[in-house]
Structures are given as C-alpha cells and as structure tokens.
Target: Metal-binding protein
Amino acid sequence: MSEHYKFFQNTECEYFPCHKVENEADFNCLFCFCPLYMLKDKCGGNFKYTNGFKNCADCTIPHTRKSHEYMMSKMGEVCKLASEKE
Model:
C-alpha cells in the first residue's frame, strides 16, 4: 500500500527548512501551518509563549518524516475544539 501522501517536501520554498533539523531529507512540509496550534498546551510540541503568543520555532513535531500519524491522532481534539460554540 502506498503512503506517499504522508510526506511532502518543498525544497524550493524560500523558508525551507523553516526549523533547524539534523537531516533536511527527512523534513516534512505537509503540515507547513500546524493544525495543532489551536490546541494550546495540549499540542504536545516544544513551544513557549512569547509576548502572549505561542511560539513554535523550536518544535519539529509536524515536520518529521513520521509526523502524519501523530498529527492524525490529535485531529479529534482539533475537531472538537473547532466545533465548540462560544
């Protein structure tokens, strides 16, 4: 079974790679804008708050070759949060 949809790389992007990594060949651009940002402290990533904003500059969770499984495991929480009425 092919699983090529789980990994994408855009080496022509002017920001590639947008995070410091040891191996650029394994850098996954699929989740360029992290869908877990809205989970705040429940995303599981390496982040900090800077001037009241979530700073994910040191997080590479969405950018690993095997990130797809982790990201999909958190989508239930994202959907629940997104469906909540204010």
